[in-house]
Amino acid sequence: MTQKMGIIGWPLGHTMSPTLHNFLFERHGLDAKYEVWPTQPEELEAFVSRVREEKIQGVSVTIPHKQAVMKHLDGMSFRAKSVGAVNTLFWEDGQLFGENTDVTGLIAPLRALQKQPETALVLGAGGAARAAVAGLNELEIESVFIANRTRSKAETIAHDLAARVVDWEKRQTTTPDLIINTTPLGMAGDMQDMTPWPGEFPSGCVVYDIVYNPLRTRLLREAEQSGCLIIEGLEMFLQQGLAQFRLWTGQEPDPDTARELLRSALG
After folding, report:
1. How far is Cα 113 from Cα 216, in angstroms, rounded to an integer?
2. Residue 115 marked as a ligand binder
3. Would you name the residues annotated as active-site residues?
4. 208 annotated as a binding-site residue
5. What pTM was computed for the model?
6. How many CB atoms lie under 10 A from the CB of residue 72?
7. Which domains does the chain have, with CATH numbers?
8. Are 61 and 88 in contact (CB under 8 A)?
9. Other CB atoms closer than 10 Å to residue 226's CB: what's the count?
10. Which residues form the Shikimate dehydrogenase substrate binding N-terminal domain (predicted)?
11. For residue 58, which of 8, 121, 108 has the smallest C-alpha distance?
12. 126 labelled binding-site residue
């Protein structure tokens, strides 16, 4: 019997998740299919009941359900509780659990750095920013700052996850070793020519943009031209997806072939 997995969100536009997971299922010889399930907020409770009734093997959770889904679960990982958001549903001992693989995905390329940064600045204050700050705490980064246009949203994350707030207008007066963009600035479409960091970069800093379409945002292009080490957002998307695959199947995927697939799909 074909196992069902998929993604819920609303609105649920183009997503690379089916491309990644269906490729991995086929490559590992698994009888499984990853589907797209647009789910409005008022439909969430009914959808979780469906997951239980049909024993759907795994679910990716995206906006606006990452927090709302938590009250419908039997339990959550320590990481998901710490972040206050769930992006993955999985079964454990017959119970439906929540995990946050956004954190796993975000810090995976940072773990590979030859030298860990001592200071980091997170731009934005949405769910991805929460995951970023939580991940930086896991890496034991000494000083973590967060800046957002709406300061109160940054203050909430800073309070919950022991970071420090920097005014958006003063963000470029900081000199962090690592800058992480979690805003949509630079994303394909109306914001493609925008950047959250117009101007000079701190010398020798690492610049990480979680936007993965386009692969090289304006932020990353300008950072690279300034001599910074850059990390593409595709890496976070890939690593969080691989972590989901491990949870759902217990198998270890090959990141290199999956990375090639996604880069090809993004053109």
Report:
1. 19
2. no
3. 66
4. no
5. 0.92
6. 18
7. 3-99+235-265 (3.40.50.10860), 104-231 (3.40.50.720)
8. yes
9. 16
10. 7-89
11. 8
12. yes
Between CA 12 and CA 4 the distance in angstroms is 18
Q: Determine if residue 210 is labeled as part of a ligand binding site.
A: yes
The H-or-E segment that residue 231 falls in is strand 229-231
DSSP classification of residue 202: P
Tokens standing for residue 167: 């005014």
Longest dimension (CA), the chain: 58
Token pair belonging to 242: 């691989």
> How wide is the angle at C-alpha 99 spanned by C-alphas 33 and 163, nearest 5°?
140
Q: Consult the annotation and say whether 179 binds a ligand.
A: no
Q: What is the mean pLDDT of each run of 10 residues along the chain (267 residues)?
A: 96 91 98 98 98 97 94 96 94 97 96 95 94 96 97 97 97 96 94 96 96 95 98 96 98 96 91
What gap in Å lies between CA 52 and CA 56, rounded to an integer? 7
Buried b or exposed e, range 135-173, using 16+ CB within 10 angstroms: bbbbbebeebbbbbeebebbbbbbeebebebbebeebbe
Cα distance between residue 249 and residue 135, in whole Å: 24
Residue burial 24-49, b: 16+ Cβ < 10 Å; e: rest: bbeeeebebebebbebeeeebeebbe
